[in-house]
Amino acid sequence: PGVSNLAAGYSYWAPPQECIIEAQKLLSENCMELHRYGACLGLPELRDMLELKLEKENGILGREIMVTAGANMAFVNVAMCLCNPGDTAILFTPYYFSHRVTLELHGITPMYVECDDNLIPSAQNLLEALQDAKERGVNVKMVTIVTPGNPSGSVIPHQTLQDLIKVCTDHSVWLVSDETYEYFTYDGAVHKSPHASNGVVNIFSLSKSYGLAGWRVGYVAYPPALHDVMLKAQDTLVTNCPIISQKVAIAALKVGSSWVRDKVTTLLSAREAIYEAIEPLNPVKSKGAFYYMIKIPSVLDEIETIGLLAQKYNLLFTPGSAFGMPGYLRVAFGAVSPEESEEVGMRMMKGMSEMVRAGLRLTFDLQSSIPLASGREGNWGLLDGEEKLIAKESSEINRLRSAEGNEIAIEEDD
Questions:
Q1: Which one of 62, 82, 116, 150 has the minimum C-beta count within 10 Å?
Q2: pLDDT per residue as tens digits for the range 333-362
Q3: What per-residue confidence (pLDDT) applies to 358?
Q4: Residue 1: pLDDT band by 50, 70, 90 thresholds?
């Protein structure tokens, strides 16, 4: 109680009321269809609706569509069908941790490629990685992107998507695009789905958008050439997405994506309140999903820092090392309602100042313990690129803006 879960990757809202009514109706009527196996690909009515949605909203045509038990299940199926044990698959850093775990479970070797400074996948970095892999005889089968990004929050621009497709096509490598957060964009950013005549797989979910995370409904669009192997994977692993979940998904799609977009606008207060708290840390202000990546002082331990913020400020975060970005924390604001955003933002401000103060104290202790490196000796040196952060935070260490715009004092530790 009282803990703000900024580690959880879910949206705060419940599904549309139409979904609840549909579920209650089906259960009250004891619909026998719910208790039977269903088609591996999904209910025909749902697949027809998804086909129209993909054409209208994503510009994707001529693809097979499979309904899966969430987007993660879709990725498991795709990885199993595109790669063999011993093959290599590329993930951009920071990556979604479930993608890495999926590869490892299948005996696929992850290869990590850096994003650019704005945490956007770089086509040039990918090109260099694939060229290097070819020279070393490494068999790269697929490249995975997430747009809008988890955990980066980055929205990949259309031209960059085209560049990524070209690089993958030129090297006969599959491009897999996880678009779970397709409706979560801000500041004029526009989500585009990558697509080509072949070689691209697109993954989607109703979990975040329609508040259906617990119902486990995702779907994947892929070239017809993959039909047989995808069907074999789905039939073996889960057979089909639960029928009641698919029926609820149909009700959600009838409500339409405008409902989702209206809900996304309610995240703006939390997005701004949290960004105001972390701005002194100079983070990338993401334009998609509902995440920020923040750097902690390099002298601090990730897990201990998370423990400090949980115990003193009732704030939970995910360590950046889970996403291949050690020394960072992932902040998720999707679970923060508009009513909570101001209060959570204030605790975030206090927590971030506490974190930086702890880093300053520890840095001073470490520097003072090294001959010719202490302040008294007049030689501090650089602090791992954090001099700007520390200078700014030090000048404001005793000040925090209150909700009314006044200043409140933060007492220094004895």
A1: 62
A2: 999 999 999 999 999 999 999 999 888 887
A3: 86
A4: low
pLDDT at 294 exceeding the cut of 90: yes
Nearest by Cα to 67 from 216, 260, 184, 252: 216
Distance CA 171, CA 101 (A): 25
The contacts of residue 409 (CB under 8 Å, 6+ apart) are: 398, 399
Tell me what the mean pLDDT of segment 378-393 comes to.
45
Task: Output the CA angle 383-387-390, nearest 5 degrees.
Answer: 105
The span from the CA of 114 to the CA of 198, in Å, is 26
Q: How far apart are CA 1 and CA 63, in angstroms?
A: 46
Task: Take residue 75 and report the two structure tokens written for it.
Answer: 């990725």
CA distance 78 to 360: 46
Contact indicator for 79, 101 with CB cutoff of 8 Å = no
Residue 412: pLDDT above 50? no
Q: Tell me the C-alpha distance between 333 and 5, whole Å.
A: 9
In contact, 174 and 82? CB cutoff 8 Å: yes
pLDDT tens for each residue of 238-263: 999 999 999 999 999 999 999 999 99
Asked if residue 203 lies in contact with residue 217, where contact means CB atoms within 8 angstroms, the answer is no
What is the rounded CA–CA span in Å between residue 136 and residue 130?
Answer: 10
Tokens of 162: 């085209």
How far does CA 53 lie from the centroid of its chain?
A: 23
Between the CA atoms of 27, 39, 141 and 173, what dihedral angle is there, to the nearest 10 degrees? -100
The CA-atom distances, in angstroms, between 319 and each of 91, 215, 328, 330, 331 are 18, 27, 6, 6, 9
Residue 200, phi then psi, degrees to nearest 5: -125, 135
Cis ω for the linkage preceding 94 (within 30 of 0): yes
Question: Which of left, alpha, beta for 190 (phi over 0: left; psi -120 to 50: alpha)?
Answer: beta
